[in-house]
Predict the 3D structure of the following.
Amino acid sequence: MTALQPARPGPPAEPSPGRTPRRIPFPTVDEVSRHCLREDEPETVHIEVHLPRQPDPDRLRAAFGEALRRHPRILIRESPGRWYRRRYEWELTGTPDVDPVRFPEPQPGSLERARAGALAEAPPLSASPPVRLEVVRPSVTDSACVLLLTLNHTALDGPACLRVLATAAELYGGAADSTAPPVRNPAGAAGQAGPSLPAPAGGRARPARVAPARDAREDGGNGLLLADLPVPRRPAGVDYTVNDQLLVATCLMIARWNRLQGAPPRPMRITMPVDDRPRGAGMPIGNGTRLVEVAFGTQECAPEPGPEEVAALLHRTAGRTRALKSGPRPQLGYAAGLLTAPVLPVGLRAALTRGLRRAAAPWTSTTLLSNIGRIPYPLDFAEAGRASAVWFSAPARMPRGLTVTTASTGGRLHLALRWSRVLLDDAAGQRLCDFFTESLAAVSAPTSTDSTAEPTKPATSGGDGP
């Protein structure tokens, strides 16, 4: 049995009363996440889908429930067991244990509260499905609404949950089948192929950390800031992609922040999820990305680069990402596979994993950039309209303490900065967003001096953590 399971054409067979549900062992990613869970840093992914009008509650509940049955790998709960068992196991329940759809009363501040809850309260692993869908209207007079999904990242990732929501949109609108999304290019290269370049010298040295803000709190939790920006432009025929531009913009953002905080220049490593799954109805559901690290040398991070230096850095980054994407690699690397081998009881493996994580903290990458890319689904909810914007945010656990997540719809880039409140405060998050906006303009073509460049819409606060 694989850990990832595609959608079925119809509802799965439900467990018979009194019979044990079918079980599957935790795959490597799920087990490592399960070992490292902490109450003060919930492992949640938050997704916001903005619609012009609110869907009908009964029809949405029915459509989302049917979508869950068509993607049975999302209908899971953790099987209880002793600490000395050799594996964690998921139980495939076939039907939900709880109603995952909520319609809170519209009132001022409801969206901010829902966002804060998405950062602070993970759906429990003990009840199927580990997903919560809230349909939020910011006010009684506002017809627009937000579909806010919160998922427990131990069980599945953002792209998988979005695929389930896309199925729900198709069912809500009465579509018999979805239009096949565009095929993803595993190499991720546009235009000229170009050579694959190795990582810069010193790439395995201890990387830079995001410098802490002076007013950061000690009570944990995550902060969030969302922004709507233009998608960066590229000259025709270049070898780098929008993803490469986002990597360089993230590097420049953190390097500038660290210089202003007085941190000495150090090499930087940015973790980047790579997702090669198809986006059609048969997309495997679960945690399906593999993580690679893109390295930047000290000299690439230290100065304020001019246009020529930025262009050269973009080309070097493109070569590095091509090499990383094309190379075979387990999802979390080979060491994680050894840690999760069912030789020792899970309780001992959990203690070992947490100890090694603490010991390896100084070598953890600087930050994580998760670029979902262009949303491949129309997310059309009939009379409620199509999605006008989609935001994702990934957990911002220490020692990284900062994640950058992007998605694009309608030619706009939807940026989410999420940070640990042990590391940064709201003012620091806003300043980092400003730096990212300026860095994105620096890596875009044509340059910001072109009068045809699209304006940047102001960033909006995403609400406080706990």
